[in-house]
Write a structure and sequence with these properties.
The chain has about 190 residues and is mostly helical. The protein is built from ten helices and two strands; from the N terminus they run αααααααββααα.
Amino acid sequence: MDAKASDPFSSEAEQLPGPGVVGRLWLPKGLSGNVIKDWVDRRRKSIRPWASFVDQRKFSKPRNFGELCQRVVRNLNTYHSNYTFIFLGLILYCIISSPMLLIALGVFAGAFYIIHLKTLEKKLVVFGRELTQGHQLGLAGGVSFPVFWLAGAGAAVFWVLGATLAVIGSHAAFRELESSDIDELLMEPV
């Protein structure tokens, strides 16, 4: 066995389907570790400084509905990466603060992992059809659905969506526009 094939942290290890950690991981088609890493890196590069994001001196009540709409649109464009990390943080908080939800996610991951290992040994065939990765994911979801239901995952999803809408919506509505955005708004042709 090569040293390169057994090193899960080398750049070649992601391309080699081997018995290492990377070879056992499954990601949906078209989604690799590099794609996820690139997406996170792009978000981190376009993130605005948190100090200016939460600067209380930059918040005020909009004068009218038109200004509120302009603020929401401009702030969503300006702070989209910050808002993404707020959303991910709320998801993480919700998962960590609910032990049953952690157990449900563990059951789902375990069910999928077991199903995936079985397909590595031999192809899984149900009713004469081979199970694709999407079917395997659905089967793992079906197996873990009762645990998600008992854990209150539906309430957690709506809590995260509501909290995200409240936090991001209020920030986008009450955060004053940057001076460059105001100049751009004033210079638009009539």
